[in-house]
Structure formats: C-alpha cells, structure tokens
Amino acid sequence: MYFFLSNLSFADICFTSTTVPKMLMNIQMQNKAISYEECITQMYFFVLFGGLDNFLLIVMAYDRFVAICHPLHYMVIMNPRFCGLLLLASWVLSLLGSLLNGLMGLRLSFCTELEIYPFFCEFNQVVQLACSDTFLNDLVMYLAIGLLGGISLSGIIMSYMKMVSSVLKIASAGGKYKVFSTCGSHFSVVSLFYGTALGVYLSLAAIKNSRATGVASVMYTVAKPMLNPFIYSLRNKDIKQALRKLFS
Predict the structure, then answer these.
(1) What residues make up the domain containing 159?
(2) Sign of the CA dihedral with 198 first, then 87, 98, and 232 last
(3) Cα separation of 246 and 248, whole Å?
(4) Which DSSP state fits 32?
(5) DSSP, res 19
(6) Separation of alpha carbons 221 and 165, rounded Å
(7) CA 20 to 30 Å from 133, out of 11, 46, 139, 173?
(8) Is residue 45 in some structural domain?
C-alpha cells in the first residue's frame, strides 16, 4: 500500500507542477499569455501525469481488493515483482496516452488571439478553439475517456462491490469498521478525482467559456492532489498521535 502511495504522491507533485507554477507566474506578472510550444508541452505532461494518477488509483483498488477478499494470499499475489510490473504498466500506458494526445494536438491549426477559459491548456478546450477540422481529435478524446474513465471506473466499482460483499460476511462489528476505514480514504480520493474530471470532459465539454468548467478544472488539478496527503495521512495512527500532541 505504501509503495503505491509514494508513487501516487510523486504523480500528484508532477501533476500540479504542470499547471500551478504557470498560474502563479501569471498572477504575479499580470500576464496570462502562453506560447504555442508551451501549451503543447503543458498538455503532454498534464495528460501523462493525469493518466498515471488514473492507473495508480486502479492499481490501489486492486491492492485493497486482494487484501480484503484474499487476505491469506495477499503476500503471495502482491509480491514486490508484481507490484513493480503494475507500476511499470501504469507508466507505459500513461506515456502512450500522452504521446497520442500530443500528436493529435500537433495536427490542429489555430487562428491568432485565442483565449482559453481555464487557467491552463486543457485538451478539450484547446480542441474547441482550433480552426481546422477536429472530428478525429474529438473521436480520439472520447474514446480515451471511455477507455481510461469508463472502464477504469467500472473496474474500481466492481472491486468495491466485491469488497462490500466480503465485508458483510464478517460477523464482528469491529472487523467491518476496520475494513471500511481501510478503504474509506481511497474511495474518497477516487470519488473526488473521477467526479470532477469526468464532469469536465463529459457534461461540460460542449460548453465554451463556462465558469463551471473552470471550477471543476481547479478541483481535480489543484484541490484533489492537495487533499490526497491529508486524506491518506489522517488514516495513520502515528500521525494522529503526533497531531494530538501538537495541539495539546
């Protein structure tokens, strides 16, 4: 669990680093301009680390599933070699996805003096502002959403359904509480990440210059990575005891 958490923390740091420094510089310099090259680069790394976040959440859901539904085989199934392979697969799939998005962005042509509503170059907003035909880009974008979002989220939901089914078979109330507390932090992060991200790319993708799109973008690019350390660390007894000592 901590192996995957450390990698999720690294992905979150890189994820926010693709957008927040530029946003802070824009606020400080009072200049919101971004060049074409910077925009394409920002989109590439944004998709890379966003995809890595997505795959790590799936892997962590599987890790919790094995721990709860197959506890006696956990150390055999989730051995260091298999965990390393899962991490490698997450990186490879994220790199391929970001490369595809980058190449699709390069084929677009743009007019001058464009204004992107969110505070960074979000792929669906950039596609909407292109002067050339965007049918292929839209097709690839929604296929990626279906594969990365739909299938991934379905897999996570199915694993949680199996976990809940296993928990209900536990006789003791203490055992049920322990299992639900173990999964609660991961479920909170999954809900926050997928709820806001899918909101941007599905229900709000067709609305241009929408304030709601900007708010949702801030939620899953800034708020979610910022809340992750608090959500996970507050499940740790040592950190709870340290906080009690600090405030007392």
Answers:
(1) 2-234
(2) positive
(3) 6
(4) -
(5) T
(6) 33
(7) 46
(8) yes
Tell me whether residue 11 is in a domain.
Answer: yes
Number of separate domains in the chain: 1
Give dist(CA 213, CA 210) in Å, integer. Answer: 5
Instruction: With respect to residue 126, please indicate whether it lies within any of the assigned structural domains.
Output: yes
The model's pLDDT over 82-106, given as tens digits with 9 standing for 90+, comes to 999 999 999 998 998 888 888 887 8
| Domain annotation covers residue 241 | no
DSSP one-letter string for 136-186 = HHHHHHHHHIIIIIIIHHHHHHHHHHHHHHHHHT---HHHHHHHHHHHHHH
Residue 113 burial class via C-beta count within 10 angstroms: exposed 0-12, middle 13-18, buried 19 and up: exposed
pLDDT tens-digit profile of 159-177? Answer: 888 887 877 776 676 666 7
Residue with tokens 């084929």, as numbered in its chain:
107
Phi, psi (5° rounding) for residue 207? -100, 120
Q: Residue 139 belongs to a domain with what CATH number?
A: 1.20.1070.10
Q: What is the pTM of this model?
A: 0.81
CA distance 97 to 118: 22
Helices (H) and strands (E) in the chain, counts: 12, 0
One-letter amino acid of 200: V
Q: Which two tokens stand for residue 145?
A: 């959403």
